[in-house]
Amino acid sequence: MEYLDQTDLTILRILQKDAKKTAKEIAEILNITPSPVYERIRRLEKQGYIKKYVAILDKDLINRSITTICQVSMRYHDEAFIEKFEEQIQSLEEVQECYHMAGQIDFVLKINVKSLEEYHDFVKYKLSKIENIGVLNSTFVLKEIKHTSEFFIG
Amino acid sequence: MEYLDQTDLTILRILQKDAKKTAKEIAEILNITPSPVYERIRRLEKQGYIKKYVAILDKDLINRSITTICQVSMRYHDEAFIEKFEEQIQSLEEVQECYHMAGQIDFVLKINVKSLEEYHDFVKYKLSKIENIGVLNSTFVLKEIKHTSEFFIG
DNA sequence: GGTGAAAAATGGGCCCC
DNA sequence: GGGGCCCATTTTTCACC
């Protein structure tokens, strides 16, 4: 694995805040010409540092205002059950995040829905249909204090 | 607030998956010319549906492999304490997400760090320095099953 | 650093509500 | 008459040498 220099890190910091910044703009910040900036960005994409570029939408405007954190524990912990659970979670479009955890809680899920009614339907018809779920504990987000896709670089 | 038609929704679905799709490519999918696609995207940006465009980085490659979910409860629930807590959390760059929750747990945080040692330092020197924290319970992510910035549209 | 290709952005004009 | 779409043009950016 090759290491990144300060120029690479600066480029990554800029792009994870604003992917629309042009190579020219970044070049001005770095006091170099646009060409090496292009090349570095292409390299960072190719090496996998930059996975993709996405638009971040306003969840209230697109009617996904309700966010819940849902803790799930399995009844049995066979490899097969775990894998099947993970597979099924992937396909649930309401689930934005899912983590397999250390400790008593097996999985933590973050779910976005339109309304409390929709969450009810989600749990009733989708989540609880997954077999082998033991404990299922939902808590509702009152306010989003911070939510970013950025990582601290450096 | 104006409503979005199916064309708008399709554009949003495409862009939150891949912001590099050109207006021309989107136009081909929609069977229209690029111009209305441009115009709609500008409008969606102006109206706030699209908040920003960002690069998604690989957290392992940039050395943020350790993710923890941290549950925090406050000792006192004065407005002033809550607001100060929220303010201080905003400025912690290790914290990627923070939600004010309903229920016994006041806040849920998602934190990315390089190593267990760094997490130790984070809790010791940053998080626990915030006054009025009562309970602080960290659990570690063993595996990221799903993590997307996309919302289900529709 | 420079060049050809491509995409973004803009403006005029058309058609259908 | 207005909104949305198409087409043509200019400007900017990209990608490659």
TrEMBL record, chains A, B:
Transmembrane regions listed in the UniProt entry: none
Transcription as UniProt keyword: yes
InterPro entries, A to Z: ArsR-like_HTH, AsnC-type_HTH_dom, Dimeric_a/b-barrel, Tscrpt_reg_AsnC-like, Tscrpt_reg_AsnC/Lrp_C, Tscrpt_reg_HTH_AsnC-type_CS, WH-like_DNA-bd_sf, WH_DNA-bd_sf
Short name of any one Pfam family annotated for the protein: AsnC_trans_reg
Keywords per UniProt: DNA-binding, Transcription, Transcription regulation
SMART domains, per the entry: HTH_ASNC
Ranges of residues in domain HTH asnC-type: 4-65
Gene3D superfamilies, alphabetized: 3.30.70.920, Winged helix-like DNA-binding domain superfamily/Winged helix DNA-binding domain
Family annotation (CDD domains): HTH_ARSR (cd00090)
UniProt name for this protein: Lrp/AsnC family transcriptional regulator
